[in-house]
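Q: Predict the bound structure with BIS(adenosine)-5'-pentaphosphate.
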Amino acid sequence: MNIILFGPPGAGKGTQAKRLEKNRGLIQLSTGDMLRAAVAAGTEYGKKAKEIMERGELVPDEVVINIISDRLDEDDVKNAPGVIFDGFPRTVAQAEALDKMLAEKGMKLDAVIVLDVDDEALVERITGRFTCAKCGKGYHEKFERPKVEGVCDECGSTEFTRRADDNEETVRQRLEAYHAQTAPLIEYYEKAGIVKKVDGMAAIDEVTKQIEEVLDQLA
Ligand code: AP5
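A: Predicted complex:
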């Protein structure tokens, strides 16, 4: 089963993708995570992507299309029961390229799960987000704190990081890019009849439940 988790910055795509990986063995394909890894590694396109990401703009289509195409050819993905596209596609050109590459690889999209969240809630979610520096588990100052203050629930690390683009100014630019370039994709996928909407304003566990129900219906 291959799905897209779709929504604006801070909608909960990464949070829910991690849960689906655990619960269903699907593999999360986050272009944001892959680009951040390239930035950290200092690769050529990582250097170019860094400035674009810090401005809150979109990285060129061909860069992310190539990243995803290469990742789909890796063995863990080929042997998985399915994938979760997180943060991809973000433009019509990316969606068309995805359709083409899935057809070539004998794969298909089963659903586009749209997390509906009000813009005002997103800024609070993103500016309060932090991540375990060791295992990458995500948290929020208000909505998802570690069970023991300052200690990661998953791996026990006491070191946490924040993303360079998680400040209010960049979030607003990312939201602008989302509304101008990415939101129109909902119509693109509605034409294909595979859009499923979920209330992304609900609490994290409730959103997971709603997504699981959608996936159960598809199975
Ligand atoms: P990317 O990494 O994809 O970031 P994003 O889309 O902006 O999404 P986020 O990761 O910020 O949010 P999320 O929806 O995953 O929310 P999360 O679950 O963490 O992209 C970053 C940049 O890379 C882009 O700006 C662009 O430059 C570039 N890029 C990436 N892909 C690209 C592409 N395809 N094309 C071109 N450029 C690309 O949740 C946020 C917080 O809220 C967390 O703290 C969480 O605990 C909390 N939370 C989650 N759900 C809830 C809930 N239901 N209630 C309360 N709190 C919640």
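A: The mean pLDDT is 96.
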